[in-house]
Amino acid sequence: VQLVESGGGLVQVGGSLRLSCAASGFTFDDYAIGWFRQAPGKDREGVSCIVISDNNTYYAQSVEGRFTLSSDNAKNTVYLQMNSLKPEDTAVYYCAAEQGPYCDIGFEYWGQGTQVTVSS
Q: What is the full DSSP assignment across 48-81?
């Protein structure tokens, strides 16, 4: 099982980035994929999640309306489009996979993370 994040980088306030999470080694349709982030000195925070089988998506209040989560099932890849970025969005972003048609706390597979830095 492998989850590989990409797309992080340095962006100015108000800018956009698109993160990708490429999955392999499991049946993509049977899972939910979540994005989490962790800033230095802070706890890990859930950002967004998508249930692959029905495309139900969920967002943290802090990103609602600015971030959009989508999936390309043919590529086993989930995309997190991040717009109107703020300095407080700066963190390492991780994707994770949980088996089942729900976004819960049982994420069993994790990627290595990608750094997002929003400069003011």
A: EEEETTTTEEEE-TTTTTTEEEEEEGGGTEEEEE
